[in-house]
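Think of the structure tokens as a kind of shorthand, similar to the way a musician reads notation: each symbol stands for something richer, in this case the local conformation of the backbone. In the example below we present two proteins back to back. Begin with the first one, reading the sequence and then the tokens, and try to describe in your own words what changes along the chain.
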Amino acid sequence: MELEQKKELSPEILRQFSGSDSYHRHWLKPHFMMTAGINHTCENGLAWFTDIIFSAQKKVKVATEDFQVWHLRKIKSGGCVVEAEDGNGNRIYRQRIPFTDYPFDKFKAYAVQSDALLVAMLPGEY
């Protein structure tokens, strides 16, 4: 990951995204949408995290939750763990990633069902 990309993923930059008036379609399925903030993270090296969110929707336990909280947590081995919960602290998904160059210790996003769409967003865009 390039230095400029790391800067663009900093919590200070991501806090600038609040609300959202523009949406971007995800490349996997047309009914998966991303807010401007999530699209920004994809453009700066975190597209794989969004791919996990949307590909995990194939699992019934994940897809049946209208509100999902997604966490990326770095681990000492140089990898990370991606987990989702239902908003009440109940884990609905977990995946270990053996390597990541994500420069920060953690990252959080939401996935929210809206009509027939699933929208991924930063917490400040909720």
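Once you have a description of the first chain, move to the second and do the same.
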Amino acid sequence: MARSLLLMVGLSIAAASCGGDTPERAMARAEANRTAGKYAAAAIEYRNAIKMRPQWADAWRQLGDAYSEQGRSEDAYSAYYNAIELDSTDLHSRVQAGRVLLSAGRVNDALTRAREATDRDPSDADAHELAARALIRFKRYDEAITELVPALSTAPRPSAYAAFGEARLGQGNLAAAEAAFRAGVSAEPDSVEAHVALAQFFQRINRLADAERELTALVAKNPSSELANRSLAALYIAGGRRVEAEPYLRAAAAQSTQKLRSALALADFYVADHRDADARAVLEAATTGPLGDLARARLAALNTKE
């Protein structure tokens, strides 16, 4: 009886020390937040789960995904790295880590991650696509296309078609490139990424009217898409049409989740136009969100100018 009482007291103390919480409950809250698009809140709960169970590889993997959704690439890479260290079979984290490396210009390292994944699972479409994108950076277009054949056969999705289009464009085959980008749109007509890839192709080959037509239609259909608004703003800025670009850049910066860090881009836009007061207002608003540290650093640099 006394032993049972001591056990119950011990359990009560343990529960009180962590607020009655468990790793599983924290994970459930994290997944609910992530499903609702609340990625910053999800990341907090994933971290809570990890504090209670540091060796939980799946929690690290999902934390990496939550950071990726916020555009926090460095944090995402650290989380994916930990997931891989804890579970060598985690191909998702290897590929995602490779994507972060590729975005950072570490092409060789990205290709290494892709090869690690394809060696473990030759049918992994994500890994083949990552390898192809790395090879395109090296201008090894024939090899990239070879990588994309299994990716397109098992997962004919817009991102793989876009990579195929990039490789064909690198080879100088404009007709085949356009066909690939259009195939991506056909595969998923509602994909913002597919339409942006097609528009950017048009922009690169100087079919600017086609690019604008594609993006204006996309924004009209997806007015809250950060990517769609940023892409149209970028097109206008590149064409010297800054006045027309501003509303779309502001719309991108108004989104609560910003993978593209659009609030910082809007502040830079204002600084370039010598509108420091507007830039300061944008940065001050951003200090309370996921971009807080970066916004504060930009704000300090802006204030130093005075």
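Compare your description with these statements about the second chain. The longest helix spans residues 2-17.
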